[in-house]
């Protein structure tokens, strides 16, 4: 147990106040994290943490910089999505290797485990599942501890640095933290860091982020209709195109369909040549342009009990939710898709599913790229060939599926 030195006296002062004061002292400077109506105290705390850019090395980055509401809680900057699709960290010039997935609906992923029947990996958070949920009991909670300390993201030196900022009376919500998690919570760095992550996970699962308020949800509830094209798209999604075999449309009663079964697959997505990770210094990326994202396999290789299964999982990435894939501030706004953001529209994505295995491999600089040819997969091993690559869809059917995906945006 590490203890927190700095705030000792101040914290005591606050403690006394806490007993008699209302929940919110002052909202964080940015104002973006103002308390949301209808959130529980824990969810509100998570929201304040999610939107607090003071919790980064240069005081310039919070979770929403890479997970923005207006685009369905993924990367919000069009100029980035159109190219490398990777977001710069708090420290200028520092980039990871992947496109931000949505932070919404991640809370519903089970703890990473092997399916009893087929031995396949299921659950976890991140594209490669490395936030397993084993530590805090929920993958999204494990995940939430990552960005604060990732040198390519918010880049704080250690958990104590995060806790120090949150527990400081200047945070504006240290009282709330103590009210929700106990007066002594700031005395133990590990406990406080866990409480911070769990609060963020609760906000991510809240009605504000995981809203289940799309037109498709209203349709399921019998409160709205889908038009003919959307209905054709839904039928193809569940039938001829087989999308729902991974992006599952099942409901367990409590939770509406999540459009993922939290399994992993290698679709054969090409590299994104504009990925800024390729030109990171050797200390960050020793392989330079030769870097290949092995996904789940790269994580399994780090775990002794799973290492022997790494090779057969190279190139596999977690099946993402499709909720909000079409959510954008205006119609022509470009979003990036896939773990490296190679795809720039849902039309491209669906055309890829339909034709990857049918069209030839592009020659370098081929003008037909994404229409009449596809570049080689980033990882050629473990390609998903049964369900993906040759769907026999007409152009009109591709459009129907895209139209259906448009019904999954929360309102
Ligand atoms: C600099 C950009 C950046 C910042 C800041 C950032 N993220 Fe992310 N986030 C990403 C990227 C990139 C990934 C995928 C990384 C990977 O798979 O290796 C990710 C993954 C996630 C996921 C996993 C979703 C899933 O389905 O697996 C969640 C949840 C998430 N972030 C929440 C947060 C929270 C909470 C914060 C703030 C504490 C945060 N992010 C800060 C870029 C960012
Ligand atoms: C074999 C399982 C599987 C099937 C079948 C499948 N997908 Fe996916 N889907 C994935 C995986 C895995 C990814 C992430 C792949 C990557 O990044 O390399 C993904 C990514 C996506 C994305 C990008 C989402 C994002 O946030 O970046 C969209 C959109 C999508 N799929 C739509 C569809 C549609 C439409 C179909 C049917 C035509 C379909 N998928 C069929 C597994 C599947």
TrEMBL record:
It is found in: Cell envelope. Residues 228-409 form the Cytochrome c domain. It comes from the Bacteria. Its main location: other. Keywords: Heme, Iron, Metal-binding, Oxidoreductase, Peroxidase, Signal. It holds the Pfam family CCP_MauG. This is Cytochrome c peroxidase.
